[in-house]
Design goal:
189 residues; alpha+beta; two-stranded antiparallel ribbon; 6 helices; 4 strands; globular
């Protein structure tokens, strides 16, 4: 739901349809000319790691850690542009630097809390190359069913359906031309 969520961390710019007739978006957070720096890790990721560790240790400050990224706790109100009888609330940016994110509420269950932490990781780390590790950890460390973690069913791409793999296969050229490569026997999450 990254593009459709309206979340300011995952905005996209429509660039037309691809060869398969599927809408093509590029992330608004990166320059279209490729000049944006590639950040390997930053303070936001460090806070997300802390929040997950706090949750794992049953430390209730996990939610405070997530909310500090989202907002400094202050906001402005203004009339809604479409309906002046309603009021819009604009939450000020937290340490994550993105305005418009309201504080999160505790979902109240252990599974709901894990879902919330990993949802926040997905939004904060959108298109940074961290998601596969998160998905695999949800299966391995949190006992989630891969069918609940990975996308399933119809896919608008070339093959028409999502596959069942949870890892990327080693390219044949690596196996062929690297005499020291012995392979990975575990293709599970």
């Amino acid at each position: 739901p990254y593009l459709s969520s309206g979340d300011p961390r995952t905005k996209g710019v429509f660039r037309g349809n691809n060869l398969h007739g599927v809408a093509h978006y590029v992330p608004a957070k990166y320059a279209s000319d490729g000049s944006s720096p590639i950040v390997l890790t930053d303070g936001v990721e460090a806070r997300l790691i802390e929040a997950e560790a706090q949750l794992h240790a049953n430390d209730p400050s996990w939610l405070t850690t997530l909310n500090a990224l989202r907002t400094d706790g202050t906001y402005e109100t203004r009339p809604n542009a479409q309906d002046p009888s309603k009021t819009d609330t604009l939450w000020h940016a937290g340490t994550g630097g993105v305005a418009g994110l309201k504080p999160l509420s505790d979902p109240g269950t252990p599974d709901g809390r894990v879902d919330l932490v990993f949802q926040e990781r997905g939004y904060w780390l959108y298109l940074t190359g961290h998601r596969q590790g998160d998905l695999r950890r949800l299966v391995r460390e949190y006992g989630r069913d891969p069918e609940r973690v990975y996308p399933t069913g119809a896919y608008a791409g070339l093959n028409g359906r999502y596959g069942t793999d949870v890892t990327a296969p080693i390219p044949a050229t690596e196996r062929l031309y690297n005499p020291k490569f012995t392979g990975c026997l575990n293709r599970g999450a």
